[in-house]
């Protein structure tokens, strides 16, 4: 009489397993099971809930960076983008309303997938391809209002202005013909060639450069955790919508020669041999800001005994 009892017990265990774990294979429900949707997650926090938030946003194609559990700028931007797309207050704070809606959504992206550079770009698109577009337009003098990876009204206006100057159909869609023209523009109107760097941009470039004083020197460094000389100039200019070549020598080749540097121009030096090997940003009064190998990002005097004999010239962008 014990055998049926044992059989009944095993059947009960199997049934309970099915009842308790019916959806362990479903990624979104696994997230939901571990997320307290009544909490508030905000910029600067570091914990497992932030990591679960990042995982969910990544499932839905809003977050594309490391799952590190750190609520930084990229996480905040992803939250704001999700909130904007779902009728929530786009404040970048993941509170109960945002978390509740986010974790009740199946892990199937409802967001438009980021397009690659070989796919048409149009208003409403997001991602690296849009950043690349904005950087190129800004470098040609068509101001997009920043390089944020969001194809909004300012980027649309810049694309249309460029298309008009190139004799293309000005529909604001970056298709094959517009991409080809961006890579090799036939002509740019005087309005957009007269001054690639505006007075406002110059002030912003200098302010952004000064904000990085004290950043250590790192060979090959391109981020605020450490810069080399051309990584520093490239980073500061990119923050202001202008794409520079990566190396000091390439920046020298790309710029327009000037007889004397003005604020915001790049100044170049030969520190090893006779060719260009160092670059900095001229800030006026005979001074430039640069990522030096010995002191990191500092302000230096162009007329001191080290820099003056090594100065090669200045280029504007």
TrEMBL record:
Record's SUPFAM superfamilies? Answer: Cysteine proteinases, PGBD-like
**Annotated signal peptide:** 1-32
Domain NlpC/P60: start-end pairs: 199-317
Keyword line: Hydrolase, Protease, Signal, Thiol protease
Which GO BP terms sit in this record?
proteolysis
Stored PROSITE patterns: NLPC_P60
**Domain of life of the organism in this record?**
Bacteria
State one molecular function term (GO). Answer: cysteine-type peptidase activity
The entry's family comment says:
Belongs to the peptidase C40 family.
Q: What is this protein called?
A: NlpC/P60 domain-containing protein
Native species of this protein? Pullulanibacillus camelliae
